[in-house]
Amino acid sequence: MKNQLNFNIVSDEELAEVNGGSLQYVMSAGPYTWYKDTRTGKTICKQTIDTASYTFGVMAEGWGKTFH
User: What is the pLDDT of residue 6?
Assistant: First the structure.
């Protein structure tokens, strides 16, 4: 499917060059990772693992611990 809205996908490094800051890793919890924008000081949350993969991973880990 063609991108009809003409969005450009940029990496964090490219975005840092455009806005004058960079994203610094803060922490990860579950399928989410938090970054801090060094220019604005705002904390940004990105989902870095899809929900289904994370859920199945948690279930598999629990089953593995239960039956070991």
Answer: 59
- List pLDDT tens digits, range 10-56: 676 666 666 667 888 999 998 999 999 888 889 999 998 898 999 99
Task: Name the nearest CA neighbour of 25 among 5, 46, 50, 40.
Answer: 46
DSSP characters over 2-58:
--TT-PPP--HHHHHHHHS--EEEEEEETTEEEEEETTT--EEEEE-S-HHHHHHHH
Give me the residue label for tokens 């490094």: 13
pTM over cut 0.90: no
Residues 6 or more apart whose Cβ sits within 8 Å of residue 56: none
Domain ranges for the chain: 12-66
